[in-house]
Write a structure and sequence with these properties.
Strand content: 25-35%
CATH architecture: 4-Layer Sandwich
CATH topology: Phosphatase 2c, domain 1
Shape: globular
Number of domains: 1
Number of strands: 12
Structural class: alpha+beta
């Protein structure tokens, strides 16, 4: 695809500590090429370190692509390399500072080439698409509860309220191999995308997300309204959103 044929993209990013946390362990990144959200975990600020390292890896990937003469031929190969780099950075940091052992982070990232998104996902941050008035979830939560739902052992309506719904079975963890889900998604004019941490989805409904993405005139408006809704719902966790609109 030539630059003249490429679909335009507008985007916004926002992050809020929420109502109950003293620090923000989420990190995010957004440029015309790459969008990403990471939600860190681990005590003594280790979660903040882990999510920042993952986003630094995504930013460095974006910078390398900006300097390249051509768009990447394989979005998923490039994203997979970026996730592997993020994992390596966590390992290196723990090797330098053993007190950070056990830190980890989710990572949900989208790489844009003008008409297609490559999506890399690990953990329970989420990606959504609003297209032609219908909201769909592009990612699958890597949680124990979601596994039980997939196996038919727990109804989805119970999973949404289960106290263990945030227990992860896959994430970027120091000392563990990175195993992201990788997929491609062809964009259409008018598409609206959301990447978010579970600080949003734990206290909002798909209907609320649908309403905001449908009615918000700009990505900035959508981000602000989603964060407000999460805080009005108690804001028990950090809240981070990246919203992108494909031009009509």
């Amino acid at each position: 695809m030539t630059r003249d044929e490429a679909l335009g993209l507008s985007y916004a990013v926002g992050s809020d500590v929420g109502q109950r946390r003293s620090a923000n362990e989420d990190s995010a990144y957004a440029t015309p090429r790459l969008l990403a959200v990471a939600d860190g975990m681990g005590g003594h600020a280790a979660g903040e370190v882990a999510s920042a390292l993952a986003i630094e890896a995504m930013a460095d990937l974006d910078n390398r692509l900006a300097e390249a003469e051509h768009e990447p031929a394989d979005l998923l190969e490039v994203l997979g390399e970026g996730v592997a780099d993020a994992s390596a950075r966590l390992n290196e940091r723990v090797a330098d500072d053993p007190e950070l052992e056990g830190m980890g982070t989710t990572l949900t990232a989208m790489l844009w080439d003008g008409d297609t998104f490559g999506l890399a996902h690990i953990g329970d941050s989420r990606g959504y698409l609003l297209r032609a008035g219908e909201l769909s979830q592009l990612t699958r939560d890597h949680t124990m509860v979601q596994s039980l739902v997939d196996e038919g052992k727990m109804p989805p309506e119970l999973a949404a309220r289960h106290p263990g719904r945030s227990v992860l079975i896959r994430a970027l963890m120091a000392g563990s191999p990175a195993e992201p889900d990788l997929s491609t998604h062809t964009a259409e004019p008018g598409d609206r995308y959301l990447l978010c941490s579970d600080g949003l989805t734990d206290v909002t409904t798909p209907e609320e997300i649908h309403e905001v993405l449908s009615s918000a005139a700009t990505p900035e408006d959508a981000v602000g309204r989603l964060i407000d809704i999460a805080n009005e719902g108690g804001g028990p966790d950090n809240i981070t959103c990246v919203v992108a609109y494909v031009d009509c």
